[in-house]
Amino acid sequence: MARFELNGKEVTVDVPDDTPLLWVLRDELKMTGTKFGCGVAQCGACTVMLDGMTRRSCVTPIGTIDGSSVTTIEGIDGPEAQAIQAAWENLDVPQCGWCQSGQVMSATALLLEIPKPSDEDIDNAMAGNICRCATYVRIRKAIHDAADTLEG
Question: 21: which of 57, 63, 67, 83 fits an S-S bond (Cβ 3.0–4.6 Å)?
Fold first, then answer.
């Protein structure tokens, strides 16, 4: 049994300790915004925030997060998240959309850590997020636009 905070609310799940967080979110808690991509932490589609840091939920056993705070795309909020989401819309970043929740989670985490990221900062932070549609130029532009918005 695992107890943790999910998007600001305490939850308890009774699943085997080795169950990946991704499947607990999607199957047990019906939080389907977090996507399955590769299952081996290489694509970033399953990115969530665990205690404020990005984490690949497909390889995170539920038994390792007891007492932690998990934020999914459904619960992300704050100025950085709002600026990222607005920039994503303004620049029509998504094509198929499959990777976008993970992209938004990683981009938001980047702005929380580095408010005015360089291209190199963006490339490093987003390197673990694969976009099959190759919208990388729009993603980088959207992160710069969000940072500019936050700067005022």
Answer: 57
Rounded Cα distance between 96 and 74, Å, is 19
Residue-wise DSSP of 52-101: TEEEEGGG-BGGG-TT-EEE-TTT--SHHHHHHHHHHHHTT--SS-TTHH
Taking the complete model, does pTM exceed 0.85, yes or no?
yes
pLDDT in tens, 65-98: 999 999 999 999 999 999 999 999 999 999 998 9
The rounded distance, in Å, linking the Cα atoms of 21 and 55 is 10
Residue 54 φ/ψ, nearest 5 degrees: -65, 145
